[in-house]
Amino acid sequence: MATATAAAKNVRDIGTARAQISQLTMYEWVALDKRGTKMKGEMQAKNANLVKAELRRQGMNPQTVREKSKPLFGAAGSRIKPRDIAIFSRQIATMMASGVPMVQAFDIITGGQRNPRMKNMLTDIKTSIEGGSTLHEALGRHPVQFDELFRNLVKAGESAGVLDTVLDTVATYKERIEAIKSKIKKALFYPTMVLGVAILVSMILLIFVVPVFTQVFKDAGADLPAFTKMIVAASDFVKDNVFFMVVVLVGGIVATVMAYKRSEKFAHFIDRMSLRIPVIGNILRQSAIARFARTLGVTFRAGVPLVEALDAVAGATGSVTYGEAIKRIREDVAVGHQLQLAMRQTGLFPNMVVQMTAIGEESGALDKMLFKVAEFYEEEVNNAVDTLSTLLEPLIMVVIGVLVGGMVVGLYLPIFKLAATV
């Protein structure tokens, strides 16, 4: 009974602390120190008088204290990104390895945050820790930002008494994964933007420029070449149906995204088709294998049992196809099959990966072999992305030339024909 009463009291204290934090207001202050030097900063308090009192207690003379203005759209545009979590992971790992107490480390990291949502999340985690929660329990309050894999690794580190080492491993893992994702996005962003601009310019030409030329040709009584007639017909179609085309395009994109998120079969179909795209499919496949190997290596090294590790790894590959394959691997391993045998049965892992895994299992160095596989395929992804960028540049030029250049040539053909008859 006493234990239950104490636990209830602890929960109430944590709730009270969180409520008090949520009632605090952020103030910006300017003060003079003992040497007359102007100092600036921010402080959370219930009112401005308490801020001034705290500044005087620290030996400063307050000049101005005002409530910090809120962004025009609140916290919009300040979503917590995976890169923010990667940076936080490295910060907390560095501080823990340096011997900084956990609560103090959170204070330091929170003080340097510019993102309001990130700051509030770290404050909530720190409050939970102060209330007696372990780090993995506090992180569990924010499952979107800290997935099951992250929490399991932290839990394993806490249980083994090597939290600082595990946090360093997690930080390196996050940085590597984000580097791969960033590399792929960067390679695809440029051609996507160029093609988008080319299509936009083509639409502008069809809607606004071609009709002007069409009227000139009618006034001159010119006999239009077949290619020019095709461009004029395309212009008429776009002008008459531009609203419908925009609605269909936007609706198609929204419907595809929703279907991908809600329909498992559709997600499988899109994922399988993506893996079959020349060059890009190979990059996605290599990226999934690299993320699988590194994630499994990290969890296994942290002391997480293999079956549990595979359960957490399934959602970390970035591929629905590979995620389902890893779930099947987990089921096979759970009934006693070797990891390398279960991997071979899926037909998705190259022979080199299977052989490296087999050597790791036999030698008792599975994590080391998985890290070697991850490093190899991460390098392969980097090389493939560089190759893709090189291949796409001339292809983009050809597409732009066909879209825009072809349209310009088609518009000037009647003019050349008229000039030849004069």
UniProtKB/TrEMBL annotation:
> Which GO BP terms apply?
protein secretion by the type II secretion system
Q: Which PROSITE patterns does the record cross-reference, listed alphabetically?
A: T2SP_F
Location in the cell reads: Cell inner membrane
Transmembrane segments in this chain: where?
188-213, 242-260, 395-415
Q: How does it sit in the membrane?
A: Multi-pass membrane protein
| Highest taxon of the lineage | Bacteria
Q: Which parts of the sequence belong to the Type II secretion system protein GspF domain? A: 88-211, 292-414
UniProt KW Transport keyword: yes
Ordered alphabetically, the record's keywords are: Cell inner membrane, Cell membrane, Membrane, Transmembrane, Transmembrane helix, Transport
Q: Does the keyword Cell membrane apply?
A: yes
Q: Name one Pfam family in it.
A: T2SSF
* Record's GO cellular component terms: plasma membrane
Homology family: Belongs to the GSP F family.
Listed name of the protein: Type II secretory pathway protein
Q: Which organism is it from?
A: Mizugakiibacter sediminis
